[in-house]
């Protein structure tokens, strides 16, 4: 927020996986991140944020995946997303990484902890 100032709209998108299994969440997250690991603008942005060449090398380090994919209980995910708001975000778009048939149940599960 400090870098953008108060007049700019800040909406950091965050990917989420509804599971407490770190390995499963990382596997799902890596599939979603695969295309971004081919895009120099994303690699450069992640490096400016403190990630190194090893982090952004395919398939992405655990550190990178854990930073850009929230996972855990619905309450833990909501707490992660709230960190963006606490840091000054105006809105946090959420991309739930799941199969289409499980999307609505996943959103319903997240709604309460997100205050919706």
Strand and helix map with partners:
Elements: E1 14-17, H1 22-33, H2 40-48, H3 53-56, H4 62-68, E2 69-71, H5 74-86, E3 94-96, H6 100-114
Parallel strand pairs: 1-2, 1-3
Kindly describe this structure.
Helix 1 crosses helix 4 and helix 5 (74-86) crosses helix 6 (100-114). The longest helix has 15 residues, at 100-114. This protein has a three-stranded parallel sheet with strand order 2-1-3, with helices on both faces. The chain has helices at residues 22-33, 40-48, 53-56, 62-68, 74-86, 100-114; strands at 14-17, 69-71, 94-96. The relative contact order is 0.23. The protein is globular and about 35 Å long. With 116 residues, it is mainly alpha-helical. The protein is built from six helices and three strands. The two termini are 24 Å apart.
Structural class: mainly alpha
Q: What's the number of extended β-strand segments?
A: 3
Low-pLDDT segments: none
DSSP summary: helix tally: 6
Molecular shape: globular
Summarize model confidence as the mean pLDDT: 95
Helicity level, as a percent range? 40-55%
End-to-end CA span: 24 Å
Order of helices and strands: EHHHHEHEH
Strand content: 5-15%
Main sheet record:
3 strands, parallel
Biggest sheet strand line-up: 2-1-3
Specify Rg, calculated over alpha carbons: 15 Å
